[in-house]
Amino acid sequence: MKRRFLLALIVPLALGACGTATPSPAPTVTAKSVAEIQAGDDYNDTDVMFLQMLAYHQKQGLEMTTTAASRSADPQLKTLAQAVQATEKDELSMMQAWLTQWGKATDVDTAASLHADHGGLPATGPAEIKALKTVSAAGFDTAFLNLFLAHQHNAIEMAHLETTQGQNKEAKAFAVRVRESRQAEVQQMLKLMNS
After folding, report:
1. What pLDDT, in 10s, does the model give residues 14-36?
2. Residue 158: CB partners within 8 Å, gap ≥ 6?
3. Domain hosting residue 155, numbered range
4. CA dist., res. 38 & res. 41, Å (int)
5. What's the CATH code of the domain at 9?
6. In whole angstroms, what is the distance from residue 177 CA to residue 135 CA?
7. pLDDT tens-digit profile of 41-84?
8. How many domains does the chain have?
9. What InterPro entries does this protein's entry cite (predicted)?
C-alpha cells in the first residue's frame, strides 16, 4: 500500500519535472490504492471491451516504455517512460482484477475482424514495437515519441468510447482518469519533441 501511495505521489512529480514550461497543477492524489478500487457488478459490453482492449494496449505500452527507459539518451524521456510504466502496471492489475471479478477474459482476441464494429484494435502492432527496438540510437528518441504519441492518442479514443457508452460507474471514472493522464502525457511528449 505504501509503495503504491508513494508512486501516486511520485508519478505526477516526475512528469512535472520533465518540462521546462510553467508546471500545470498536479492531479488530486488520494491514499486509496488503485488495486483497492472495486468495480461492482453493474456493467455492459462496452465496459468489458474497454478494459480488455486497454489492457492489451497497456501491455504494448509497457513493452515500449521498457525499451525507452533503457535506450533513450534523454533523461527527461527516461523519467517519463518510467513514470508511465509505474502508472500502467497498477492500472493493468486493476483492469485484470475487474475482468476476473466479472468472469470475463483478461486478454482480448486480436483478430481484427472481431473488432471492426468499434474501430478495430489499437494501431500499434508487433511490427512497430519490433522496429522500435532496432532503430538506431541516434533516431530512437524521435521514433519512440512518434510511436508513443499515436499509441496514447488511441488510449484517449478508447477512454472516450467508455465514457460515452459504458455503464459501470468505476470503469467510466477510470476512463476519465485515463483520458486526462494520457492527454497530459501527450502534451509532455510534444514538449520533448520540440525541445
Report:
1. 444 444 443 343 344 343 455 56
2. 50, 53, 54, 57, 122, 175, 178
3. 2-193
4. 9
5. 1.20.1260.10
6. 32
7. 899 999 999 999 999 999 999 999 999 999 999 999 999 999 99
8. 1
9. DUF305_CopM-like, Ferritin-like
